[in-house]
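thought: fold this chain, then report.
action: predict
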Amino acid sequence: MTVKDSVWTGKVPVDDTTLYVADTGGRGVPVLYLNGAYADQSHWRRVIAGLGDAYRHITYDERARGRSGRSADYSFEACLRDVDAVLTARGVDRALLVGWSYGGVLAWHWADRNPERVLGVVCVDAFPVGLTGEDGHARIRKLFRRMRLFLPIAARLRLAARMSADQHADVNIELNEIGAASVPVLDRLTCPVRFVLATGDSLGTRDGEMEEGRKVLDPILARNPNLTVSAKVASNHTRILRNDSPAVAMAIAVTAGLDDNGPAQGGAGPDACS
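observation:
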């Protein structure tokens, strides 16, 4: 049976909305994919295709993204509740979390709160730094107000949420503050955490800001042996899943323990965070 043939899709209710979920099922290692802040699950297609059916791939669209419903709450805490809701609805006790950008920050915070439920974490160009304080907030709001006419088009291209410019900015401001304050979270994680890092800047950053931000990981990696860099690739932040999906797939395979030994059965994998 192929991944495509066995996939389940449906809506999972949570709070005041529903999330559109896809689950390939099977007995392989459960992998939950957490999207970028305004992206949907379609961005993981190349990674999933590269990994194949040795895994149970679970993807979903966050609130107001993709085919999920709108909500009155787009906070980081709501996104943490959504992880709980999806795993519970699909009957998954322990999963490997794979997060890109916003999803990476979400993954390490959820792992910190639920160490007994996490097999490992793969972070795709997520690191604990951000534009903070009044100046940072003003810069973020200015960026999204400039983009306000483009956002509805970007949403149809799966590059933005069905939110107003101010709501996009609120999500980004909160992420920057939480990300910048996340060093203690990474310091205390005890499960395998692998980073796949991009190169260069991305939308809204300039003059090598992203490269400087990635350097923040260096002392954390030195302190916590559970954290490693799996790869640094040539793609920038936006294109990493499209152009360097093999590097992400390899990080997942290594974290799941399936890079050399073939598929595990019954959701086996590395030790959970504990």
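thought: worth noting. The first helix runs from residue 3 to 6.
final: tokens above.
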